User: Fold this.
Amino acid sequence: MLLSLALSVLVAEARADGAATYASLCSSCHGAAGAGDGVAGAGLPVKPANFTDPAFWNATRTDEYLKTVTTKGGAAVGKSPLMAPMGAGLSEAQLNELIAYLKTLKK
Ligand code: HEC
Assistant:
């Protein structure tokens, strides 16, 4: 009982941290709700990914893949370099929280 309470608090905190990281590093291009409609993304020739689109979340988008894109940039997976390496300064824990948060944006 206590353990599960502690665990759910931890999970809630991890989600909050992932959300904060997303808001500061990603939302300018990917949009506040992840729809790929951020202000900074609007002027780019390549549209930022829409994380709310269920089609985005196909089997190729594994955690490892998402971490590579986030830390090494789109070019590392054959995508546009306009997706810059954004998460290089994040700890492994922060990165995991961010990826977990990205998945909650799916509609
Ligand atoms: C300067 C704008 C910009 C910022 C900031 C940005 N991105 Fe992106 N991102 C892009 C663009 C543009 C693409 C589309 C690349 C393509 O389709 O070739 C993209 C695509 C992606 C993709 C999808 C790659 C795929 O398989 O199609 C992921 C995942 C991603 N970004 C994660 C993030 C995360 C996480 C952050 C914050 C840490 C972030 N991005 C911040 C511009 C940005």
Q: What stands out?
A: Helices lie at 2-25, 27-30, 39-42, 63-72, 92-104. Residues 25-26, 28-30, 40-41, 44, 46, 48-49, 66, 69-70, 74, 79-80, 82-84, 86-87, 98 surround heme C (CB under 6 Å). The mean pLDDT is 93. The radius of gyration is 14 Å.
